[in-house]
Specification:
The protein is mainly alpha-helical. Helix content is 46%, strand content 8%. α5 crosses α6.
Amino acid sequence: MTYIDQGNMILNMGNASYKVAEKKDYVGTEDMDEMQKKVIEFFKENSNPTQEDLYNYSDFGKVAPQAVDEAVYELMSIFVQFLTEGRANDDGISEDDVDAEELKMGIEVEKEHTTNKETAKRISLDHLCEISDLYSFGKDGKRGQSS
């Protein structure tokens, strides 16, 4: 069983438990260590890798697998935090609570930041919590009127 305790940012996988990160409001790449940056590059270059692929990645050199694991878990905790926090989650807003067309437009707009549809939807929902017609605004020069 795998679960995350967000208060302490502890990842539990089977019998192993790892403290992966202190909870932060925002983590930018400037806050990441070199191993985390290498892990990000690895995942950008390797879709659906195995654990063996990860450990054999040449840019890690002679790094102990535990150090690679720690970087992966830290990054995963940051991503889980992103997916489970934010304005929409804080306000209990789901896709059923916003205009479907606005959300559809928002997902397309937010794909400028990601190729992942769920991530784009997550960003869109946060924005729509603040401005319900954000994505149709300016489309035809009139607020709240989409064509």
